[in-house]
Amino acid sequence: MEGQGGRRRRLVLVPYPFQGHITPMLQLGTILHSKGFSITIALSQFDFPDTSNHPDFVFLPLSNDSLYRFNDPDDIDRLEELPCIIFDSLMYSAEAVALHLKLPSIIFRTGCATFALSFYVCPKIQKEGYTPFRASKSLELVPEFHPLRFKDLPVFKLKNVDEFLQHVTTITNLRTSGMIWNSIDCLEQSSLVQLCPKLQVPIFLIGPMHKLAPAPSSSLLEEDRSCISWLNKQTEKSVLYVSFGSMATMEEKEVAEMAWGLANSKQPFLWVLRPGSVRMSESVDLLLDDFKESVGERGCIVKWAPQKEVLAHSSVGGFWSHCGWNSTLESVSEGVPMICRPFSGDQKIISRYVSHVWRVGIELENVIERGEIERAIKLLMVEKEGEEIRQRAADAKLELQLSVQKGGSSYNSLNELVEFIVSV
Ligand code: UDX
């Protein structure tokens, strides 16, 4: 994509400095580089992934005092040519930089479209008098937002609903030329029908992005590849992969219930126990020593895994997940059915979609308890009752494959995006 003077057009990509946001932004960079653009990643120095994995990108350390803001136009002025800025919607301070320098800008939404739709639904239900939310309402369906219940909304448990809605208003009022989404038409059709008229800018759904162009690892933690050798020794679709992403934290009691639920299920498992993911964890090591002895070779525990490779491995037959959007897309793309244990943010909405819209998984509804866990694992992985879920997951994989192939919705949308960037 040539700009002035016959050079490639430069794009400055501004990720939000967390794993679940850096990964899709670097994937977007890889895809757009393959389409002929030059890519600069603007990020606080503290959160750089291993830059040697991305020799085609220029990394621009931001000079801000805050990790979560990008508000110094000089950072961009240092570049030789005028770029187009693509920023994560949570780095909304970039809007002012783009306006100040009169540069075109595009928002990148790393989450799902249905979560974005909730940004319009939440203020409406507040106006209609549903807040503060009463516990007795938690299981009622939200008007015009089925099958979501009040308890699935990101505001439901918040103490300061007004603060959240203020944040939502800032994001929904951003003035940019367009919007990119790591999602797929076929997964979020009904939400998109409601959302698109509200956005008033062209939108481009180009997910699942990791299937559009193979991106190198962007992990902030070191991946333990020993789990791949362990997976190689397991039988087809026998392993339950367990991981709750990069941010969720649990009480020790929940870890104990998980451990004994896994042990009692008799199913092989690969469990990512991220450092810092267990609150007040003095005795968790003792607990895990007993547990490891009891499960022996049937279990493999690591601190961080090469997740995309794990989910694509033929031995993996299920994923017990917190339903972060990246994890969910990675699982659905590989046809791996899910057990959903959402924590916060968009995860409850995604969990509801996995279990009640796409029906490729089951939700752990109640308090996390070993008997319930054991039943869920058996249903998902082996029992006849789970067969339809497993089949739908396999079908969804094929549908997503079609979307990134020539003529598919994400393939076409990417080509439209490229033309759009050249034109703005
Ligand atoms: C957060 C939110 O939780 C999520 O809901 C939101 O959509 C994005 O920001 P996170 O909690 O980290 O992200 O979850 P997720 O979106 O699933 O991203 C985690 C990423 O880390 C995935 O790409 C996954 O492949 C990767 N990962 C996770 C690993 O590479 N190894 C691991 O062991 C665990």
UniProtKB/TrEMBL annotation:
Gene Ontology molecular function: any one: quercetin 3-O-glucosyltransferase activity
SUPFAM superfamilies for the chain: UDP-Glycosyltransferase/glycogen phosphorylase
InterPro entries noted in UniProt: UDP_glucos_trans
A Pfam short name: UDPGT
Protein name: Glycosyltransferase
Source organism phylogeny: Eukaryota, Viridiplantae, Streptophyta, Embryophyta, Tracheophyta
Keywords from the named record: Glycosyltransferase, Transferase
The family this protein is said to belong to: Belongs to the UDP-glycosyltransferase family.
Gene3D superfamilies: Glycogen Phosphorylase B
PANTHER family membership: GLUCOSYL/GLUCURONOSYL TRANSFERASES (PTHR11926), HEXOSYLTRANSFERASE-RELATED (PTHR11926:SF1489)
Species the sequence originates in: Acer yangbiense
The keyword Transferase appears for this protein: yes
CDD domains for this protein: GT1_Gtf-like
